[in-house]
């Protein structure tokens, strides 16, 4: 019975994926609102997190994973992508009884030359009320509002292009907690989305056009060997001819009482350009009187520019 429901959900998702992937012939490598990988803990594991999604970062990686959380808390991440683009990321989640979880997130990147802001709301629900056999299955969605502005730098040319953008996005997540040790996850990022860009220049006047952020489909699995050790495997399936399948593997190991060591690796599958990326990092978790404090650090190594990420979380 449970496997039948899961097959139906996956089949419907594939129909949506096929329709969205066939809709355009434009380039499907995003140039704006790029997912750089948010959260120092997930990126310390190389970006393998969809199949685990067991902390506040589930808001971005797989909102269905919020059903694993019983408490409430906040997480913050800072990164300087490629050494010059600042990113600030904040997320929050809490329980709404046994049946629901709610979360939210905010991403701000860039400067006056060009800035991007994404605000999102997450809602996750167990499917136990539909059928007791579905107690370990959760569905979730993210509703995203996006905005951008560019050309507002005071040192720019008087005839520079200026403008703004506004749009929306919808993610769908699935989490199957198969056992205490094993879970499976799936994320359809930007299943529905659209962004309208407005620009103007003294000589050319104003213009407007719309485009979408390319859809991403990721499936993953996690295996918790012990309470202090976990392994995650994610596969990002290519939906367009100019995008490659990608495999990502990550591990986390608790050492001593408060320190977690992490590592991960990812690369394209069956492509001439492997685009390998390696992540490594650590976390320190300290239980205080009224809340838990967590500091996370990740360092990403790739062909373009190595990038550190710093994260802080409070859970209560």
Topology as a string of helices (H) and strands (E): HHHEEEEEEEEEEEEEEE
Briefly note the CATH topology name: Porin
Distance between the termini: 37 Å
Mean pLDDT: 89
Rg over CA atoms, rounded to whole Å, is: 20 Å
**How many distinct domains?**
1
Overall SS class: mainly beta
**Major sheet: arrangement of strands:** 1-2-3-4-5-6-7-9-10-11-12-13-14-15
The CATH superfamily label reads Outer membrane protein transport protein (OMPP1/FadL/TodX)
Molecular shape = globular
Classify the beta-strand content into a percent band: over 45%
In total, the number of strands is 15
Architecture (CATH level 2) name = Beta Barrel
Give the class-level CATH name: Mainly Beta
Report the biggest beta sheet as strand number plus sense, adding barrel if it closes.
Answer: 14 strands, antiparallel, barrel
Helix content: under 10%
- How many helices? The count is 3
């Amino acid at each position: 019975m449970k496997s039948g429901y899961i097959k139906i959900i996956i089949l419907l998702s594939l129909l949506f994926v096929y329709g969205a992937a066939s809709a355009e012939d434009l380039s499907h490598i995003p140039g704006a609102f790029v997912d750089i990988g948010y959260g120092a803990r997930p990126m310390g594991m190389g970006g393998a997190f969809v199949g685990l999604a067991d902390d506040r970062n589930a808001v971005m990686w797989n909102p269905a994973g919020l059903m694993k959380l019983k408490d409430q808390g906040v997480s913050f991440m800072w990164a300087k992508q490629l050494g010059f683009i600042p990113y600030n990321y904040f997320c929050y989640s809490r329980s709404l009884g046994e049946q629901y979880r709610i979360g939210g997130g905010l991403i701000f990147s860039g400067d006056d030359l060009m800035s991007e802001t994404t605000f999102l709301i997450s809602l996750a629900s167990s499917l136990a009320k539909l059928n007791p056999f579905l107690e370990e299955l959760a569905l979730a969605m993210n509703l995203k509002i996006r905005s951008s502005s560019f050309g507002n730098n005071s040192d720019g040319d008087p005839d520079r292009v200026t403008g703004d953008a506004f749009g929306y996005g919808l993610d769908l997540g699935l989490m199957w907690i198969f056992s205490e040790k094993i879970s499976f996850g799936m994320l359809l990022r930007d299943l529905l989305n659209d962004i309208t860009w407005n620009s103007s220049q003294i000589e050319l006047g104003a213009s407007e056009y719309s485009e979408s952020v390319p859809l991403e489909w990721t499936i993953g699995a996690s295996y918790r060997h012990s309470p202090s050790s976990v392994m995650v495997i994610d596969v990002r399936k290519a939906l367009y001819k100019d995008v490659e399948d990608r495999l990502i593997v990550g591990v986390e190991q608790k050492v001593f009482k408060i320190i977690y060591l992490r590592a991960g690796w990812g690369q394209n599958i069956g492509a001439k350009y492997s685009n390998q990326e390696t992540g490594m990092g650590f976390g320190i978790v300290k239980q205080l009187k009224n809340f838990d404090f967590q500091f996370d650090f990740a360092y990403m190594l790739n062909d373009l520019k190595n990038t550190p990420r710093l994260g802080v979380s409070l859970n209560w």
